[in-house]
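To the team - cytidine-5'-monophosphate complex, inputs and output below.
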Amino acid sequence: MPSLANKRVLLGVTGGIAAYKSAEVVRRLQDSGATVRVAMTKGGTEFITPLTMQALSGNPVHTELLDTEAEAAMGHIELSRWADVIVIAPASADFIAKLVNGEGSDLLSTICLASRSPLAIAPAMNQGMWRNASTQHNIERLRGRSVHIFGPAEGEQACGDVGPGRMIEPDDIAELTADLFETGSLAGKKVVITAGPTREAIDPVRYISNHSSGKMGYALAEAAAEAGAETVLISGPVSLKAPERVKTLSVTSAREMYDTALAEANGCDLFIASAAVADYRPIQVSEKKIKKSADTMTIELVKNPDIVSAVAALQKRPFTVGFAAETANAEGGLEHHARGKLERKNLDLVIANDVSDRTIGFNSNDNAVLVVEGQGSEAIPKINKSILARQLVVKIANMLQG
Ligand code: C5P
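Output:
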């Protein structure tokens, strides 16, 4: 199970012979599921080239603080916000002293100053430098500021000395970095989510659609990615920004959403259908704009395929979650309707909400839902959609594990 799934690691490389191992650190972090960006000090670039680090990380390497072009691409503040964790490997004695003093004299030290994410260092230096009282004092001060100190190891050194100061192995750096995070409840899982409305064309300029904003589905995609899942979001036309760490596929019509969802859902672990799919589409789509003439006009509609039912009917079926948007006091009540949907569509869970209350559901930022499963139901009172999405992800992950 990739323990750093969806985590963003900024690897800092400072000047020391152990920098040749930084290339391997990038690989091991990636093996654990992390996206890696590299920032190097000038000293670091003397030992290993930025080109090597760029080729391995798949991202441009950051070296300059006062370079307008580099800052415009991804500035030091942006980088400090981007990183879920900063790992400096190797961390030289000089750079450790810089950290202690809170210097912002180069790009890497400035990123460390600006960042609120956890910081870990893997010291690497000659044994005499490591044992030196100044270095030991600096390390204790960093520990006191909750900086994680990885190693160093003892053994033979590049200079011929034997003792403490060797950088720990890249495997161990990746493992200790992963230990800084709780393993996501959906790590190693593939999650596919549909969201937003669909548009069913009448002619080249007109369509049938609904008021779905896609907010709930987008919040669920973010929460799933945060929980470590490989997340695919299949979205109808909405005005929301594609969430980070999520593969977002844009579709327009129900049939397009159907094709994309079935292709992605095959072999996935969890499918959440939060899209407000148009139930019907015009039988015929006029190739030309329909001219206004008669006082009335009739559009004949045909039923769209039911996406979530088709996914639930797959041979290798994922855990399948549907939504039920009902208007208040629907005959028999919300739970009755949701349970009907659960059985009819062969779902594992239905999240039902009352769309007649304008302060929740469809276009609003809040939602109140009733979560209905085979055994029972749970009401979650009105809450922000992002918070609700996280709660739903925790509940679903528990059910998946069960
Ligand atoms: O049948 P109804 O539209 O009320 O069911 C709602 C649930 O079914 C939602 O989860 C919705 O995303 C899903 N659905 C679907 N494909 C359709 C219609 C609804 O996946 N064609």
